[in-house]
Amino acid sequence: MNFRKLYVTAAFAFAAVNPAMAQDIKLGILLGFTGPGESLAPNMALSSELAWREASESGKLLDGATIVPVRGDDTCSDASTAAAAAERLVNSEGVAAIVGPQCSGITVSITRAITGPVGVVMISPDATSPAITELDDNDYTFRTVPSDARQGVVLAELAIERGIDAVAVTYVNDDYGKGLSSSFEDAFEELGGTVLLNAAHEDGRGDYSAEVGALSATGADVLVVFGRFDQGGRGIIQSSLDTGAFDRFILGDGMISDQLIKNIGSGLEGAFGTQPGSSSEAAEKFVQLAAEAGFDGDGGFRAESYDAAAVIALAIQAAGSADRAGIRDNLRVVANAPGEKIYPGEIGKALAILHDGGEIDYQGATGVEFDKNGEVPGAYRIEEVKNGKFEVIEVR
């Protein structure tokens, strides 16, 4: 007997005769609307809300329930402000689950202090630090973006393939920067390369000449920048070009933005780097859906935000309620094989399949498949600055 099918069918039969179950479901969006991630957060939030609007407007979520998004600002840097925002979402608003946080350090701190002990699912579309993998989170923290443990390897392979055997590295002094720089250094040296200096920089400074001077003194011709395109990473590159210290750059995902090119100019020509994402038909479909909804879906962590929101809605359907533990227990049920593959724009279809006791395998825009740690293998777009814009060269 298919007990899963029997359970789901029974849950919906109960809902059909209990209209009170068809109600508003509050879900949280906890992103850095202020701080170092503020340029990314708005479109990430819109991407999540697009998925939840699909679910609500289908009329198939718990026989007519509506998702009500509630936003919170994690600032990406201020742990106390982020904790207050998370406390409000979890305790005052009573959200059933959260898309976010945006940045790695905040994800770690909120998991430990709030959502792990209380038992609230968080799915981060942006937090990439390898430190998240082994968090003691009671299986409540997931992510739809791959760990930087893999990004560092991909970047190291790219550098070696392009004949680069010695580099200097600068990284933003937080969990994201530390994790990515360590991953890259280990992989690069294992492949035969040499990291002449691996040094931190702080965001928010007006002058980066001292940092650039130390990096340049190593004799390296290539500078690897693991920072943020609108913060210290930009300042490091600008100072490098102004002083003639470096004119060749390798970039982490936090630096991939056309806004960086607008701010820096032609000095970035030839720079290359990685960003989570793919160029698949599913990814293109998400970009199309976003355009129809009135925002740009072709950018950092937007597809991952859509997928994080989608799997939460589908887990609610599979659980037969918005119970917090039920959402956690059904995330892998809806995101992993077996089942009918589901892509962007098919959330209503997926809800109907689950309603009828069927199985789905949500692929989404980014190829979601959660492992035992709640993480995805993901894919990386290799991007290079050509003729004044980032172009996707390949996907790995």
Keywords for this entry:
396 residues; Rossmann fold; alpha/beta; 2 domains; 14 strands; five-stranded parallel sheet; seven-stranded mixed sheet; single chain; 43% helix; disordered N terminus
Explain how this protein is built.
By secondary structure, the protein is α/β, with parallel strands linked by helices. It folds into 2 domains: 3-145 and 280-362, Rossmann fold, CATH 3.40.50; 148-269, 3-Layer(aba) Sandwich (Rossmann fold), CATH 3.40.50.2300. The chain is 43% helix and 18% strand. The protein has helices spanning 3-16, 41-58, 79-92, 104-118, 148-161, 175-190, 209-216, 232-243, 258-264, 281-293, 302-319, 324-335, 347-355; strands at residues 24-31, 66-73, 97-99, 121-124, 141-143, 166-172, 194-201, 223-226, 249-251, 272-276, 340-342, 360-362, 380-386, 389-395. The strands form 3 sheets. A 7-stranded mixed beta sheet has the order 7-6-8-9-10-13-14, sandwiched between helices. Strand 9 (249-251), helix 9 (258-264) and strand 10 form a beta-alpha-beta unit. Helix 2 (41-58) runs parallel beside helix 11 (302-319) and helix 2 crosses helix 13. The longest helix is centred in the N-terminal third of the chain and has 18 residues, at 41-58. The protein starts with a helix and ends with a strand. Mean pLDDT is 93; it is low at 1-21.
Quick structural gist:
With 396 residues, this protein is an alpha/beta fold. It has helices spanning 3-16, 41-58, 79-92, 104-118, 148-161, 175-190, 209-216, 232-243, 258-264, 281-293, 302-319, 324-335, 347-355; strands at residues 24-31, 66-73, 97-99, 121-124, 141-143, 166-172, 194-201, 223-226, 249-251, 272-276, 340-342, 360-362, 380-386, 389-395. The protein has 13 helices and 14 strands.
